[in-house]
User: Fold this.
Amino acid sequence: MWDIEAPTNDIWEISHSARCDDLESLKKRGCSLTKIENPRGGIRIDQNKTVTNRKKDVAEKLTPEQITQIQPQKLSLTLRSGEPQTFELKFKRAEDYPIDLYYLMDLSFSMKDDLENVKNLGTDLMREMQGITSDFRIGFGSFVEKTVMPYISTTPARLINPCTGNQNCTSPFSYKNVLKLTDKGDEFNRLVSQQQISGNLDSPEGGFDAIMQVAVCENQIGWRNVTRLLVFSTDAGFHFAGDGKLGGIVLPNDGRCHLENNMYTMSHYYDYPSIAHLVQKLSDHNIQTIFAVTEEFQPVYKELKNLIPKSAVGTLSSNSSNVIKLIIDAYNSLSSEVILENSRLPEGVSITYKSICKNGVEGTGENGRKCSNISIGDEVLFHISIESQKCPSHGKPEVIKIKPLGFTEEVEVVLTFICDCPCAKNGVTNSDQCSEGNGTFECGACKYVFRIEPPELEKGVLTSCSKDEVRTEDLDHCGPPASTGHGRCDCRKCICDANYTGSACDCSLETATCLAKNGQICNGRGTCECGACKCTNPKFQGPTCEICPTCPGVCPEHKDCVQCRAFEAGEKKDTCERDCSYFQLMKVKDRDKLPQPADQSYPLSHCKERDANDCWFYYTYAIRNDTKEVYVVETLECPAGPDIIPIVAGVVAGIVLIGLALLLIWKLLMIIHDRREFAKFEKEKMNAKWDTGENPIYKSAVTTVVNPKYEGK
Assistant:
């Protein structure tokens, strides 16, 4: 409170500390009540549309914009320091409120049997949801993993079919938006029936990448301002921020939409999002998450649920046969609880909640933000108090927003701060009562306008006021050139030297520090602001936007597009006209005709790449005057085919020669063996001993008889 009664003379020496006091103290000092300024805070309701009493069976159908579940919708609060302002907020669950449900499914190989049961989910779920709402839409998306090692196999064959054996699987991908939200259940069934399972190497999946894209790509997904449900179905864990380093991915997830042709295109550039990042984006986009996971991973996802407000976990059967019951139970659980949250509060402002829930149950503190067990048609109240402890430095109104988690409706609260007395609006500038017209006569006192003189005067040399009367922030802001170095201060405003700008003359207009090695400003990947590069392409970083830690290199980056445009082949053959029209293509007859680095004054890269048939093709990539140019040799350099006849003859001759060699070796071994045996025999023969003596008991079998009459005649 201020005493604005003027003194009787023209010397104003009443300090603020003497003039500002509580009401009773001012009265005791003899201040007249008519001369005391005592502004008070207040509340004004600017928009107060009544909550909707809607019945499902009524013929008249309301659009989501016509349904109101929270009241009031906009207020203006005038805050005086230390004086809280309290208002009442009413919430009522509307019957037949529209619902958008997006089914995000893991299509890694282990979910093969689950995919079969989900193929009829569209019509079945729409039939079941008729008991909850007559305005229901459903969409479908799928995910696998980042398409780099070590998450998937990058061999050519595994990139086409990542599954083993005779399994026919589709190529791996990060996230695919298969079906935008629609009210046609049969369309859901048709498109989901066309989906194929895929595969990856590691057990955790890249589901967080998919959740981020579903949340931030509102137009591509087709979200309306209604109840938004995201069903996340998997039988595995998840990668999160930091895991991307395994694949050489170090750039943090930027939380932006990167869907092209319904495919997430930046999975190999950006890391997985963190849990806190997902919480922020899901809250910002009013999405309630239902984790439908198998029994094995229930503990993991229950811990995750505790970190993500307005989320639920359901146990998915091994083949997803219970998914409809799981979704309905989780929705009933989520919709029966309302939790209020508010946007960031200005400095010095605090907020408290008190809830009056069903059956008069009251909650305070953190429990004052929420009510549970709310049925359709139930009405709950919240008493919200907002208090300011100090005035903001800028003195401008602030806006905070309060909303129930998972709902698109919100309450806008405009805060205006009482930082001056109303009499300040009637101040007289250049008043004769203030040192010969050098100040403003305001609220019974003089408010002086001062000016810091040229740099040669020391800080604090003022006109029409003393150093002690100058505000500290004035002196800090309007210091001599030593405090900014590139200009001078003229009454709290910097007058900058040439080639400098900004409120503190700290922004250089020179671009020399932004020149990259190729002579381009910020390597052609950013803009030069205040003498420093601001990289516009998120893949590039560094002082001149020349560092790209996740870039595959110029040659691999443009390989597919050069191949499809020059030779009508490669992975982008079918989408060449749409995806590869960003450069000018010129063909040359041979490699000698390609532009050479010594002849160019702009960045030029020579590339040698190989296609699926092991043929090499050569090209150059350059950026000249913001135009991308590609020169390519018009003929492929393929290895010569094999000469079959010499190969066959060589094989036959080799077999014959090997056979003859084996036969000769066998014959040689047999000869050596026979000679060894014969030599052994001869040696034993020579060593044998023969005795010529007669056996004494030997009797000859021959008997000789002599005829006595024989006379030898």
Remarks:
- Residues 260 and 412 are 35 Å apart (CA to CA).
- Residues 1-18, 450-483 have pLDDT under 50 and may be disordered.
- The first strand starts at residue 2 and ends at 3.
- The first helix runs from residue 16 to 19.
